Amino acid sequence: MDRLLILEDGSVYKGTALGSNANFRMGEIVFNTSMTGYQEILTDNSYCGQIIMMTYPLMGNYGINGDDMESIIPAAFGFVVRDYCEYPSNWRSQQTLDDYLKRVNVPGIYGIDTRAITKKIRTQGTMKATLADPDVDVEAVIRELNENDYLHNQVKRVSTTRIYPIPNRGHKVVLMDFGAKLGIVRELTKRNCDLIVVPYDTPAYEIMNFHPDGVMLSNGPGDPEDVSIAIQTIRQLVGKVPMFGICLGHQLIGLACGAKTYKLKFGHRGGNHPVVNLATGRVEITSQNHSFAIDIDSLKDTDLEMTHQALNDHSCEGVRHKKYPIFSVQYHPEASAGPQDSQYLFDEFITMMEKEKEEDHA
Fold first, then answer.
1. What is this structure's pTM?
2. Is 147 among the residues known to form the active site?
3. Which of 193, 247, 257, 316 is an active site residue?
């Protein structure tokens, strides 16, 4: 079955249908440069409102399994690939990529020139797009893409709506869920953290009522300025409890402490982004997925200092508070999928909580 990919600049690409035959939605088309990990990428809630395009040509070759999900139901609006493998070969495979996308109602397309589209996005910047049936009124779709604003408040779509525990015997950590990847939960659980997962709009007093040893601010989709209620909450938590932010959580810490954020031309998405640790000079290869970044110049009037920097475009990749036990990174130390160079940051979070408890008892 034929399918179209239509971009807001009027470009139309004809390919073959993949996944769901319905649920076509307008979203941002973004590219990811990872060579593997399509299952983890598809189920990353930070892609809510976006159509994912993979730059590596072959997808589906190792199928889908039940263990590597980053969320139960994907929030992505579509999936675009060059070549699709109908017959996966992997001992862990439980179903094909096509069958999985049909089951979770996500449409896709393959057989199109993803390299040309990637070059277009790198030149013109991220743009709106949609998948459609071949008999659609293309001019009407292009008009709608240009007239409609980008999706806002994606965090509300993917955050938990209730508080729930993931019990353990270690440090008590409140995880603010802005669309948290399960990889973050795995890394904290691996370190015996006693987790309490709360919705994005949970007030500061309710978080502190749990008497946490630390607060984890998760990744999530969209513009950080849209999550004003969380910015206010984080501002009230500063100085009261150790905090560690990842991706959107990093941006929210920046905004809560007086820094500014801006939208990147085409974002950072992939498992091969080099970042330098400014304290050690060590370069880490990182997994990334974000559209926004903290403005480095805006840090000078805050109590934050930059700790990590991207080597590709020199954008801010990490900050630390000068007075309180608070730090954050723009990339994904839990990887899933991607290199594991940065998992030491979870250990630093544990050490920070332990140090704070020692000082409180001194």
1. 0.96
2. no
3. 247
